[in-house]
What does this fold into?
Amino acid sequence: MEYGHKQAVYAWEALFRSQVTLLRRFKRSFRSAEISLSEYDVLYNLTLFPGSRLRLNELNEHVLLAQPSLSRLVERMEADGLVRRERDPTDGRGTVVVLTEHGSRVQRRVGRGHAEAIAKYVGGALDEEELRTLERLCDKLRMSQPGIPE
It folds into this structure.
């Protein structure tokens, strides 16, 4: 394996291992939360889009779940009043997931605790300049991949 390939593998392994470690910590911090980390991920992503709504297949591009798992999760979240599902007005076969007012309140409430955990585990390990560099490098890596939504 040539040097560039080897370094890319080492960099990926370091990034992946840090992500796994941090996600495990975040999951533990969600044990006492009123929703799971996966549910929070859905709610948070919905807040990023106009009207806090997104087609199910587009939402799937932004969360860490397979489509069947996301569909089941959204059904449970709808039963809990966090989201509602609507038919896509532009394509009756599609489903739009909409953040409810209750879901928005829960997202903000749980998000404060999650932000504190991020500050502790990420911000506590890196200084301000390192955090900016990490953000820039991660954005660059993500945006260099073909077909990845912004």
About this structure: The mean pLDDT is 92. Residues 58 and 149 are 9 Å apart (CA to CA).
